[in-house]
Structure formats: C-alpha cells, structure tokens
Amino acid sequence: MFTLRRVIISNSKNAFVRFNSNSSTSSGIPKLGTTPNKFNPKSSAFNLRPILPDGLFYHPAPAAPNPEITPKAFLPKSDIRATSDLYYPEEQLSITNNVKYMPVISKISTPKNYNFDSSIVEKLQSMRDQGKSRKEIKETLNVTDNFISLVTKPNPETQANQKKILAKSARKWSAKTLKAKKLKEEKKLHWERDL
C-alpha cells in the first residue's frame, strides 16, 4: 500500500473546489474521504450538491464499517454468511461493547402494587390534610399519584384556595364561556343523577 498525495482542482459550473486526496487503496485509486459538496458540508448536509473531480475515485458507502462487509442484519436468510461464525466476527464484539451506551428505547412497565393496609392509607390522608405535596408523599411512602387520588380526599384548605382562584379567573370570562361552563355543570349533574 502506498500513499498518493495529489491536489485536484475541478471546474464545475464555474465553481472551483479543491480536493486533497492523501490516501489511496491498494490498487492505486485515490480515496475520497467525503463527498465534496457545493455548499457548506455541515450546515447544508441535507442539501447535497456533489462536485466530484474528473477521474476515478474510491468512495465507499459511509454506513458500512468496511465496504467488503455487509452487516448480518442486511443479509438474506438464505445466505450462508448470515449464520456463519467466521463471517464478520467483530460484529458481535462491537455490539456487546456498546450495549451499555445505547439509549433505552421503551421503559419496561413495572406492575403496580396496591397491597397496602389501612395504616398506610391513614398516613396518606393525614399527610394530605397537613398540606404536604404529592412529591413528598410519593417519596416517603413509595406510592403513585394515581394511588394517592384513589385512596385519599383532597385537603379542604387547598380545595378552598383552588375555588378562590377559579372564581377570580371566572370574572374575566365572556358571556359565551360562562354559558358553556354552566351547561357543562348541568350535564355533570344529570350524569351523576343518571337522568
């Protein structure tokens, strides 16, 4: 293998681009590291306008680790290489080395545990009555938000504060919004009474 250092200037559509190919393959064909682009290669990577020099260049596909190797995932099942341990043994090694760096695609759902006795429910209610936040309750008793809502009643002081805030914002509502809200309340009452 020898190194070929050549600078090529190509005149294509009145744009002069300089190519420096300092490596070559064993056959002596100069290797093109990246596809030369008319625009900035970083900011306009999606808008590829290649300006290739005249002549023959060795330009392998960027996805494969080696252009002579096709990853086993892309081989047909009938191909002998797909099941052979001799073909591309580095693939398994690279997978096992990089698994710890791979991001989690989906979270495994953990089964919910609702096997709590009445003492925990009483603790939950007392903490909620004291005005403790859901975050504090979750951390101390290791329960979910949903479980807190199912088992306990909200703090009356917090409810009163929420009603005051709602009444303040209701003063700013238009007549149309007020009418819609009243209609919604009536529908809720009818639904609760099963009318």
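^ that was protein a. below is b, sequence first then the tokens
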Amino acid sequence: MPAKGGATDVSDADIKAAVDYMVAAAEGGAGEPAAAAPAAPAAQAAPAAPTKPRPAALSFNRLLKPASKRNPPPPEDGIHDPDNDGTHALQAPLQVFEALPRSNAGNRVDWVKSLDNNLIAPRWDRTDPAAAPVVMDLNIVREVKGSMPDVVYPHKQHTAWLDCSNCHPQIFIPQKGANQISMAAILLGQKCGVCHGKVAFPVSECRICHSKKKNVMPVKNAQAQ
C-alpha cells in the first residue's frame, strides 16, 4: 500500500490528529469524565480529571451528532438569527422532512431517492426556473485493496444536483490515474470529504460507496488434484 494510503499531500500532523481522534473515540471518549468521589466527609472533593482536548481532525463533520441534536428548529440551529421574527416563521426541518424517504445518516433524509421520486424539485439555476441539469450517467469504479468492496462513483446522482465545475478540475482532475484518494484525505475534508460530512451523507456510511463486491477466485481442492 502506498505511503499515507496514496494521499501524499496530507501532512504527518494531520494524519496523526485523525488517528488520535479515532483512538480516543474507540476508548469511549463520548462523554465527560466523571469527577472523583470525595475522599472523606471532612475532606474536599477531589478535582475532576482534566478533559483531554478533542482533536480537530473531524470537526468539519457536523452531521455526526446525537439523534437528539439533529434537525433542530431554525431558532435553535445556530445558523439562523433567533432574534429575527422571520426565523420563527420558518417551517421546522422535522416537519418538512416527515414525508420524505428515510436514511440512516446525516439529517435522516434520502435526498437522492426524494429527487428520483419527484418529491422535491430543486431549482437548477437561481435566476432561470426553466433551466435543467445535464445528467451524466457514468459510473467510475475504483478498486481498493483488501476485502473491502470496491468503490463505485455514480456521476448520475451527482450531476442531478451539481454542475461539473463544482468538482472538476479543482477537486478531481478529469483524467484516469491523476487522482490520489484515500480515507485519510477524506476524513480530513479533502477529495470526497469536501462535501461528504458537510452537505452530503457522512463517511460513516461505508457501504453506500463501497458497493461493488470483489470477484472471489474459487479455492482449488488439493485432494481433487
């Protein structure tokens, strides 16, 4: 496997920060550390253990939140101005999303299926309501090492939402073999991570991308020989 998974433009410090974050999460760093129990009635309670600073490697992924904190009403989402009367007139996301297909990630809405079923009709051009997208039905398969299924990148689902210039050539060079992509880079908000984890489903949904099973070679029976 190439160094850094092929992401040669990622610094050692960034990769270390990503690894530190995943190790901290695996060791159960979801909650605050509990304060130490008091030693004796007459003695003062021991100070709480200092909280280890959270690495900023995944701070870009605002969709990885507890279910109780997803899709808050506009006055509480930290985006809209709660002091503006117009904010309170906006429809709450949970009410808007109720009739849309469900997913297991992000804001729990399957936006691709919603678009395919004509449940939503996003405007392609801000100033031209009659403009329509140029949808490109082309799948790019990227082989990965190990037992993980290969990655299938569907242009159709992306070009139904985005113009080609959103990705090419700044994020992805439209040339075979010209793009070094790794999970380390994606976790750091590069390549696919420019959108996924911000405005698209997070990288925790592995099988949406890793969807092409590998061709398993049959094992020869030694006794048959």
